[in-house]
């Protein structure tokens, strides 16, 4: 589904990302971990054509991301709060995104209704603008908005950060369900090793812009990751 | 402690993004400050003589006192729109062991350094000096000047309180207009009793205690208010308001541009900055009054064409020049969504067209000045719709300054949308209507000028598709730059 080749990004001669080859098949739940500055957000930004690659390319479902815009209809993302329109209520925001993605009001209502649990009564009918919601609640709204319009690729940057424990658990269920049952390719990044190993079938570790580990999740994965990040390499 | 604060302030000033912007902007800003400061000083020096000449049989200090109230009301209005209250900077200090009172005193004290306070000093200090030279009693003049400064500072603090309540603001506006109206038509000169009060103040220097008491009271009120909710940003930013969502589904009839139009309506109604722009653009409606009432300009039709364009073009220019910037807070999202630029631009264009149409309807009272003037306004409106809108959108596309939507623009520290490119792109907006009107006017006659100006607008509407694709291209090529610029922290 997503094929990355020879991709690199430099800011003033400082290389922040360099991925030789990365192939994410359709329906995979893919996790990206790494310390601050490892290049996770850079990679996602390149995937969304928000920044220009220095070299190389990403193909999303055979569409060259930085040349064509045809990847947009089947791709959606929530990177940070700048994806929200602060002066709208959550409902208005969902409808707006829905309209952009060719969904009518009742489609959106039907989809959003499935996430009542996830919202925990703090998003809908609040009579509050998104900018007045807490960080965590903003995140909930943003994540659900990314699910509108049956996207085939969903990109979530640090979806677990700022969420309360209950919501984290519910989010995990949602992501698993998307990948397993609906065949959606889900890309997430996280600092929380436990969550990623729980949710993702495959985990890639980035370090200073380079892939240093590419693991298919198993029972040992968490241990291996913990060892890696604590600096004690187990062979 | 205060020393630390001042050191912080110093760094904040010199490291602020607006300070590190291009040299041209800095020079322009300094020039603007010098210009207004200079005007105030010259006014101050000249005021005595002007008053003496205009109202020869009244002592200039008495006339000055009579008009003082208007100055203060004017100052209040300007401050309301332009003065930003320094609050957020204190946030990181709140968790540090510093006495609350110190922080609050410092914060309130800092506002005395606002440019607006100096405007009064610039105006009244030279005036007082002239008075002294002319042999007015030192004690009276000095204390009168002090009283003025006290009142200026009182307004400074009053503005703090007013900013939290729209009601107070509207009361001031109504009072100001009513007073001017009553005075103008000679029904009741409100300035008289107030003038008498100021004169009494001048004649009895000990009455300085009154403005002083006022200042202390207002300072105390502010102090108490801030202290009661020490979360300073809460104090000034509006309380979380309940949303009363309006149903805009009737706009769906606009088809594919409807989602954007609906969004833009909400953008304008729900955010401080665009609201401010809308208020300002309303003032443009009165622009004609300056030009049409003066005989001098009657002889200069090119200037009239310019003014007529302004009458209906206020919103178009103030809102339009910041077009992608309005969406800067969530531009990344828009760019990753399935959005055709064309629709996005078209919706902004329709918004501007509607604004011109509304301004045009509101400008019908200008019929008072005759059909010729009104014809010019109509031609100007057509020009605005057909050509100016595209020029403005084009200029906006080159303007990559992020905007904080729910924060009012500050005077002299907010350079949003104020850059050399913007200045350059502004030139055709002014020169084009003047030229389009003036050349045929000179060559043929007045009507020809009108027709050409109006026809240029019609042409623009006919070639709308062409212009929009050109602007679209600018957007496409500048995409990454724009995203990066909008993502910058302010």
Write the layout of secondary structure elements.
The complex is a heterodimer of chains A (235) and B (490).
Chain A: E1 2-11, E2 14-24, E3 29-33, H1 40-47, E4 55-60, E5 63-64, E6 75-78, H2 90-100, H3 105-113, H4 116-119, H5 135-145, E7 153-157, H6 165-182, E8 185-190, H7 193-199, E9 202-207, E10 210-216, H8 221-230
Parallel strand pairs in A: 3-8, 3-9, 6-7, 7-8
Antiparallel strand pairs in A: 1-2, 1-4, 4-5, 9-10
Helix pairs in contact in A: 2-3
Chain B: H1 2-15, H2 23-54, H3 60-82, H4 100-110, H5 115-133, H6 138-162, H7 166-184, H8 191-203, H9 209-228, H10 232-236, H11 258-270, H12 272-284, H13 287-292, H14 295-298, H15 301-320, H16 323-326, H17 331-336, H18 341-362, H19 371-397, H20 420-443, H21 446-462, H22 464-477, H23 479-487
Helix pairs in contact in B: 2-3, 2-5, 3-6, 3-7, 3-8, 4-9, 5-6, 6-9, 11-12, 11-18, 12-15, 15-18, 15-19, 15-20, 18-19, 18-22, 19-20, 19-21, 19-22, 20-21
Stretches with pLDDT under 50, minimum 5 residues of chain A: none
Sum up the overall morphology of chain A in one term.
Answer: globular
E-strand count of chain B? 0
Oligomer: heterodimer
* Number of separate strands of chain A: 10
Rg of chain A, Cα atoms, Å: 18 Å
N-to-C order of helices and strands of chain A: EEEHEEEHHHHEHEHEEH
Helix content of chain A: 25-40%
Number of helical regions of chain A: 8
- Percent of residues in helices of chain B comes to over 70%
CATH topology of chain A: Rossmann fold
Q: How many separate domains of chain B?
A: 2
| Beta strand % of chain A | 25-35%
- Please state the overall shape of chain B, judged from the principal axes of the Cα atoms: globular
Which chain pair has the greatest contact?
Answer: A-B, 31 and 29 residues
Q: In whole angstroms, how far apart are the ends of chain A?
A: 32 Å
CATH superfamily of chain A: P-loop containing nucleotide triphosphate hydrolases
Number of domains of chain A: 1
Content-based structural category of chain B: mainly alpha
CATH class of chain A: Alpha Beta
């Amino acid at each position: 589904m997503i094929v990355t080749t020879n991709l690199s990004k430099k800011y003033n001669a400082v290389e922040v990302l360099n991925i030789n080859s990365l192939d994410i098949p359709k329906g995979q739940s893919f996790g990206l971990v790494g310390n601050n500055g490892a290049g996770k957000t850079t990679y996602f930004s390149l995937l969304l054509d928000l920044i220009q690659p220095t070299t190389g390319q990403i193909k999303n479902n055979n569409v060259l991301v930085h040349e064509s815009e045809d990847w947009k209809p089947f791709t959606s993302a929530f990177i940070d709060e700048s994806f929200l329109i602060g002066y709208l209520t959550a409902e208005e925001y969902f409808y707006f995104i829905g309209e952009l993605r060719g969904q009518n009001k009742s489609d959106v209502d039907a989809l959003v209704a499935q996430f009542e649990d996830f919202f925990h009564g703090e998003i809908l009918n609040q009579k509050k603008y998104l900018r007045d919601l807490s960080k965590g609640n903003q995140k909930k709204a943003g994540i659900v908005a990314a699910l509108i319009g049956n996207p085939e690729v969903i990109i979530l940057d640090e979806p677990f950060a700022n969420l309360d424990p209950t919501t984290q658990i519910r989010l995990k269920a949602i992501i698993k369900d998307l990948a397993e049952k609906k065949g959606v390719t889900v890309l997430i990044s996280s600092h929380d090793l436990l969550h990623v190993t729980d949710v993702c079938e495959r985990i890639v570790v980035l370090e200073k812009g380079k892939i240093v580990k590419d693991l298919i999740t198993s029972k040992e994965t968490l241990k291996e990751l913990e060892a890696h990040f604590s600096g004690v390499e187990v062979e | 402690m205060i020393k630390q604060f001042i050191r912080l302030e110093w760094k904040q000033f010199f490291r602020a993004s607006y300070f590190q912007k291009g040299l041209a902007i800095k020079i322009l800003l300094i020039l603007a400050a010098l210009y207004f400061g200079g005007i105030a000083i010259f006014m101050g020096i000249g005021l005595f003589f002007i008053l003496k000449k205009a109202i020869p049989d009244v002592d200039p200090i008495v006339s000055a006192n009579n008009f003082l109230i208007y100055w203060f009301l004017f100052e209040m209005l300007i401050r309301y729109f332009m003065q930003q209250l320094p609050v957020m900077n204190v946030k990181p200090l709140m968790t540090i062991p510093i006495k609350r009172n110190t922080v609050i005193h410092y914060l309130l004290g800092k506002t005395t350094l606002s440019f607006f306070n100096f405007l009064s000093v610039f105006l009244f200090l030279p005036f007082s000096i002239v008075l002294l030279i002319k042999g007015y009693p030192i004690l009276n003049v000095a204390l009168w000047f002090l009283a003025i400064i006290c009142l200026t500072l009182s307004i400074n603090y009053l503005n703090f309180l007013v900013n939290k309540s729209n009601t107070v603001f509207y009361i001031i506006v109504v009072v100001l207009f009513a007073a001017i109206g009553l005075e103008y038509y000679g029904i009741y000169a409100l300035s008289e009793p107030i003038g008498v009060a100021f004169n009494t103040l001048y004649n009895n220097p000990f009455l300085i205690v009154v403005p002083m008491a006022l200042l202390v009271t207002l300072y105390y009120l502010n102090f108490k208010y801030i202290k009661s909710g020490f979360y300073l940003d809460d104090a000034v930013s509006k309380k979380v308001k309940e949303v009363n969502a309006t149903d805009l589904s009737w706009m769906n009839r606009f088809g594919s541009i409807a989602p954007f139009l609906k969004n833009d309506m909400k953008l304008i109604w729900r955010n401080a900055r665009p609201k401010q722009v809308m208020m300002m653009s309303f003032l443009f409606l009165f622009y004609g009054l300056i030009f049409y009432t003066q005989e001098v300009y009657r002889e200069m039709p090119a200037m009239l064409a310019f003014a007529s364009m302004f009458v209906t073009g206020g919103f178009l220019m103030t809102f339009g020049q910041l077009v992608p910037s309005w969406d800067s807070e969530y531009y990344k999202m828009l760019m990753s969504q399935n959005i055709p630029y064309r629709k996005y631009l078209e919706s902004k264009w329709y918004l501007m067209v509607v604004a011109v149409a509304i301004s045009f309807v509101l400008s019908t009272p200008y019929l008072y000045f005759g059909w010729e003037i009104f014809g010019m306004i109509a031609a100007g409106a057509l020009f605005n719709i057909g050509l100016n809108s595209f020029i403005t959108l084009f200029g906006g596309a080159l303007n990559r300054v992020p905007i904080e939507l729910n924060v009012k623009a500050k005077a002299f520290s907010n350079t949003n949308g104020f850059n050399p490119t913007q200045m350059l792109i502004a030139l055709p907006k002014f020169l084009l209507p003047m030229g389009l009107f003036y050349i045929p006017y000179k060559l043929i006659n007045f009507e020809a000028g009108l027709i050409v100006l109006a026809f240029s607008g019609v042409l623009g509407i006919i070639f709308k598709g062409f212009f929009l694709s050109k602007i679209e291209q600018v957007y496409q090529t500048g995409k990454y730059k724009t995203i990066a610029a909008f993502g910058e922290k302010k």
